[in-house]
Amino acid sequence: MYQLLIVDDEIHAVRAVQAGVDWAELSISHIHVAHSTKQAMRIFDEHLIDIMICDIEMPQSSGLELLSWVRERHSLTQSIFLTCHSSFAYAQEALQLGSLDYMLKPVKFNELRAVVLRGIEMINEKREQQISMIENQYFANLWHTNRSILMERFWQEVMDQSVSSPERIRDVLHRKNLPIRETESFLPILIFVQRWAEKLNAQDKKLMEYALLNAADHMIFHGDEHGQLVRMSSDVFVAILPVREQTVNLMKDIRQLCEIYIESCNRYFRCDLSCYVGEQGWIHEMAIRYNSLICMKDSNLNRSNHVFFLSEDLKSSESIDVLQMNVWLKMLEQGAYDAILAEAERYLKSLKEVVGLKAEVLEQFFQNFLQMIYSFIQFKEWQAYQVLGEAIAIEQMSQAIRSVTNLQIWVKYALDQTIKFCYVTEDTQSVMDRILTFIKQHLDEAISREDIARHVNWHPDYLSRRFKKETGKSLVEFIVEEKIAMAKELLVTTNMSVSDIALSVGYSNFSYFSKIFKHGVQMNPNQYRKSQRSELYY
Questions:
Q1: CA-CA distance, 360 to 262, in Å (whole number)?
Q2: Looking at the predicted structure, is the pLDDT value of residue 202 above 90?
Q3: Is the dihedral of CA 365, 369, 372, 374 positive or negative?
Q4: What are phi and psi of 29, to 5 degrees?
């Protein structure tokens, strides 16, 4: 439906136009009337006028001036002029202002009807153009908003070889209207997150991944819309960097950009990662380039926060002898946790210095260490899943052999779990009773920590730690207290000389015994004997 405005200062002329045409037949639903340009402007402000029929000669302001105002504010309105004068100057100006037609009064209504119909056709055409323009703008905005998603999906398909041939690539680029050409050259950079400083839940990890991508876009691409970051997995991203011209310092610049990016990620996101820079090539060659970088990543087992170049061929090391762990098993049975951990740390730290370390070395060490733990658990008649828990989850074990650092973390965790289980499940009281009994039975000797450890089949370090935990005293403190208690009893109940009593409680050096006794009792042995006997006599 359309709206019509008739503008004429002559009332009879307006009525004639209103009555002369069947406006409803032309789908004109509303007819507005104005007798001056000011009235017409007010109607334009309040209604959407499609067609205006206007007299040129009006008091105060002409129809041409009104048409000029309408053109500036209501570009879709079609205007038809009526006049009593056939002046060419009027007609020329009216047409220059965009009038649909210029008709002389009295107007022939069949001609007016035809002109109005032409105006309606032009209105429909302009409406369609405007709708098309709005739709195009909408889809352009939609494409721009989702450009990154479309680009990422395209590169993912290229990388997994769903889109591989140059012809297929050209077709996809054209169909999706992506802003790159199949003749462009690109350089792939694989970003591998090796570990996070803290264990993240799913939501936090997603936020941190988003932060890593934003940082890479800013530091590596510098906002280049032809570059793209592609998420291949939760810890592997690929930066596809366009190469428009070869420069002498290209790889030097790439190294510097990656080093700054790595340093920033270490500092702000608390993660370890490495960048693997491939060789440039055409789009259809990116899958091969990507697979080469994956192989390079998998071969890196002992270096993190580093920039690697595919052109720098890492020579694989010779086989390294893996430690046999029979001795470690005996140490574990004796509770020598600290000693085992120190040995494992020393060995694994040495592997970090090996260039081109083979994955087989870590796998063999891992298997041997796990077998040692299993043997100990079997010896204790425990269940492995109860002792090790998450340490033997498939995901944890697969992570452990991805790098030397990961293996160090896993070894410490597995040992911690094993020792903690020992604390909980062992019959601590019975072992402590044996230790206390042994000490009391050997007070006449110079008892050493090693003597007691051999008696209960524990490692000396483990014995000291456990004894302190159970009694609140160190072994040395407890043994001295027991010896002094025995000496005090002998001083009061016997006539033995002080030197003989010193020998009876394991001190061959009389002066040292007197010093230890005075430190514990606040008087020397003879003073103590006199004080205790005088009290008895009294």
A1: 28
A2: no
A3: negative
A4: -95, -25
